[in-house]
Amino acid sequence: MADRPFHDVPLAHAPQSHWVGKNFPRKEDGRLTAGKGRYLADLHMPGMGHLVFVRSSHAHARLTRVDTKAAAGMPGVLAVITGDQLKDEINGFPLPVVVPALPANYPKFWPLAVGKVRFHGEPVAAVVALDPYQAEDAALAVEIDYDPLPVVLDAEQALKPGAPLLHEDWDDNLMFEMTFTGGQTVEEQNRNDEEVEALFQQADIIIQESFKVHRCGVSPMETRGTLAIWDDSDGLTAHITTQRPHIDRLALADVLDIPAQQVRVIAPRDQGGGFGAKAPFYREPNLVCHMARKLGRPVRWVETREEHLMAVSQERDQTNYLELAATKDGKMLAIRNRGIGDAGDGCEGVYWGYLMPFLGAALLPNAYDLPKCDIKLKVAVTNKSATSPARSFGAFPTRFAMDRAVDMLAHKLGKDPADVRRQNLVAELPYTACTGVHYDSGDFPMTWDNLIREVDLPAFRKRQEDLRKEGRYIGIGFGVGAELSGVASEVLVPMENQPGYGAATVRIDPRGKVLLFEGDAPQGQGHETSLAQVAAHEFGIHPNDVVVTTGDTGVTPFGSGTIGARAGSYTASAVSEACRFLKKKMGRIMTHDLELEAGEDDFDFQDGEIIYSKDNNIRKSFMEMSNRIIMAPLNLPEGEEAGLEHTAFFEADKPMITFSSHAAMVEVDIATGQFEFTNYVTSEDTGTVINPLIVEGQVQGGVVQGISNALYEEFVYDENGQQLTTDYENYQVATAADVPPVRVTHAGVPCPHTPMGTRGLGEGLPGPVPAALSNAISDALLPFGIEITELPLRANRIWAAIQAATQQAAE
Amino acid sequence: MNKTLNIKLNGIAYQESVPIRMLLVDFIRDRAGLTGTHIGCTYEGRCGACTVRVNGDAIKSCLMLAVQAEGCEVTTVEGLATGGKPHPLQEAFNERHALQCGFCTPGILMNAAEFLEKNPNPSEQEIRHSLIGNLCRCTGYVHIVEAISDASERMR
Predict the structure, then answer these.
(1) Which CATH class is domain B88-155?
(2) Which residues of A touch B17 (CB under 8 A)?
């Protein structure tokens, strides 16, 4: 086992810091390793009712009878509710608060099925009882009669005329379609398509392929849950496993007709992962809150894993028909893509199953210089659970398609895919992709060259050649990702009617300690530590003297949530800005107190002291100045107020990105098709790094999620729409023995648009993985001419491809 | 239907009337209030977040009825540190950033504690194989393996 010493990564462009760039061990870990975390399922209230859902056993059927009489009479049962009752008690969806600003068909639905069910597992009724066993027993006593309807389980089938119609007030099953290139008007788009076609006519070489990615996602280890408390005076307090408490609050207020000031959403301090699965506004928390109000007592629902795998965390599931035009020198001229996305039943607040393929299509050109493209997308509804966000948010399938096509181009030209890739990377930033996505800063070739050095490509190629002579097949594959670093309001407002700014309240107390409040709810990303490091860096104090509170709408400023790599980019920046505001204030007051010839920026905050930079002998302790300004605010400068608390809202002047490049190495046994990934290396541009260990953990986790998705996980529905993978025996998640170690390297530039030069990362990381893995296998099997175009990667498929290729060669 | 259960958790004796259907993990969490042991699957016994030690053996507490642990001595993650001193595994996990959300962590710690007692000088491959009963989503396992290796050095 290689012993890797810790080393501190120096801050790229800022003065000496004790805290930024440091592997500061996390503050969360003491309690989490001692079993003292406080997750949703750990929360209890006296008199709490336990809620259990009764879920549809059919994929598509009319509900002809839902009889709750027997269940309602069982011991301990407080209430049983059905969709027919619920629809008269609360507002249904869609509601503006959770509807994007994009044109699409938005299905009408309630938290419980009304009239018909549209997927295996749709909630039909709910039971609330005094203890969980009573609730489970009563749920079994709810009688439901179904009148089955034909099912449709494939997005392309769903778009064919005559396909079974999911939402009967629609004309067909098309939920969303869009052209991403050329402009806003049909004339502009048509003209663009013609220009793209002209480029295809000129091209020396065209790659044309369909790339199919299966249904899988990133289910977190902690399932969902809600503990709702109603009080006639305080209103609703809802503890919800959510990435977006401030958004949930607004949605609950509108759905349940509660004045917003009487709704408080608290994301538990500890959450067991999210990865997008806890971002939508779902049916279940909605209903739990309603029942708490209806019963006048707290109600708790803790999702089972079976429910979770039936109802959420299903993503990817796209087919991309991609064409790539290039010169014989390997320069890509244009791409044309027809994407087909599967939204499941589409009944999901905020994302509606289609926003993920939408973003995936916008990110399709990736880090490549492709000024002219023709990219179109259609998303259909099917009899499956609504597609919910999973880390990489729609780009996992499109990254697979694009980066596989690059390798296929290289193979056709007899060139090394590494060279073709590098040749086509955007050479100079800023750059705006043909889909309008803005890439603000970075140096893609530099980050890429670092990867090539780290894997020692020439040595690998030599070894590959030698081993082939021995009948052994190793391969190396690459993938890249130009990923969103936070989501600017410029993008998020049109997309989701939600802002993208980061916000943080910094409160210094008279003892020189700092309380920091931010509205995004983490699920393991380490905000309590990394944001404390930022404040400690700014104020020159210790991170243990900074306490971070997150995710409680009652005490934190508005935050759009832990989505799209916001923390390092937007939230950390807001923390930094708030701290700097207060530092300037302290500087002004110290200037006044000591009658100095100084500006507000002439002070260094180091080791608990505020030091006049023009004369180091002039210094005051941070605590003394804090106390003076808060507790003894006499003789303040003209116009200055007492107190040391500030809320900053940070919006970058341009939407920002982070860049990641990946290399996977594999050996394939051609006799069996089995393969083993032996190494995985990444080269990252994450700008200034606050905590290198946390960044490393994020990359390793994201890569392994990608590997697990590409190799093992698959949601399988049978021909009747019965979901067959509702437990971890059948829905296989990678274990430690299934994956290689992941080595993370850095070669980046500070981001010019954030106060510390930081970038956010996390969201995009699984994106480059499937291409890296399948490019590696295709590279290993190049002598057989095998190109992988479909996931998951399975030994039997590879074996069959080798057989077919060998037979063909023999003929 | 209920039965009286006599059990020791982290050295404290409990005597409770419990439903026969109650799983050991639910007894630990809901009756004893020790919520450090987590539930991550619908008791198919795959995720490992519920791992505790029953008479020294690392077992998945969702795969046992509470009444099956009659007379047993059970250690949960809350009992891993002794005399106020963290276990070397807990220290190593902190130093190596071997946890992110922490949900799988108690199960991994309890499994690893037993593993290192039986296998004090494991290779990386042996550590990875010892972890096949514990799913983790956040870390990608790299830091976990490093932390367990570190702890094994400290414990030797």
Answers:
(1) mainly alpha
(2) none
Q: Which of A635, A650, A665 delimits the end of a domain?
A: A650
pTM: 0.97
In chain B, what residues touch A272 (CB-CB under 8 Å)? 38, 40, 101-104
Higher pLDDT, B64 or A490: B64
Pick A307 or A5 by higher pLDDT.
A307
Contact A214, A714 (CB under 8 A): yes
B36 contact residues in A (CB cutoff 8 A): 34-37
In a domain, A156, yes or no: no
Q: Are residues A365 and A394 in the same domain?
A: yes
Residue type, position A77, single letter = V
Q: What's the mean per-residue pLDDT of chain A?
A: 95
pLDDT tens, position by position, A515-554: 999 999 999 999 999 999 999 999 999 999 999 999 999 9
Report the residue from A33, A220, A736 with minimal CB separation from B145. A736
Is A27 a member of any domain? no
Residue A702 at interface with chain B, using a CB cutoff of 8 Å: yes
Q: What is the pLDDT of residue A16?
A: 56
For range A176-198, the mean pLDDT: 96
Here the CATH number for the domain that contains residue A524 is 3.30.365.10
Q: CA-CA distance, A713 to A730, in Å (whole number)?
A: 9
- Chain A CA closest to residue B104: A221
User: What's the whole-number mean pLDDT along residues A701-723?
Assistant: 98
Considering the domain architecture, whether residues A646 and A660 belong to the same structural domain is answered as no
Contact B87, B148 (CB under 8 A): no
Contact B137 A273 (CB under 8 A): yes
In a domain, A555, yes or no: yes
CA-closest candidate to residue A283, choices A139, A118, A131:
A118
Please check whether residue A28 touches B, CB under 8 A.
yes
Inter-residue contact A490 to A629 (CB < 8 Å): no
Least CA distance to B95: which residue of chain A? A25
A22-41 pLDDT tens trace: 999 999 999 999 999 999 99
Average pLDDT of the residues of chain B: 97
Furthest CA-CA distance within chain B:
49
> In which band, very low, low, confident or very high, does the pLDDT at A685 lie, cut at 50, 70 and 90?
very high
Structural domain contains residue A197: no
B2-79 CATH, one of 3.40.120.10, 3.30.70.270, 3.10.20.30, 2.60.40.10: 3.10.20.30
Domain ranges of chain B: 2-79, 88-155
How far is C-alpha A402 from the chain's CA centre? Answer: 20
Are B2-79 and B88-155 equal in CATH topology? no
Domain count, chain A: 3
For residue B29, which residues of chain A lie inside 8 Å, CB to CB?
A: 41-42
Mean pLDDT along residues B110-128: 98
Peptide linkage before A94 cis (omega within 30 of 0): yes
Same domain (yes/no): A298, A319: no
Together in a domain, A422 and A334: yes
B-facing residues of A in 273-332 (CB < 8 A) are: 273, 275, 304-307
What is the C-alpha end-to-end distance of chain A, expressed in Å?
48
In this model, does residue A1 exceed pLDDT 80? no
Half-sphere exposure for A642 (CA within 13 Å, toward CB)? 11
Region of residue A37 (phi > 0: left; psi between -120 and 50: alpha; otherwise: beta)? beta
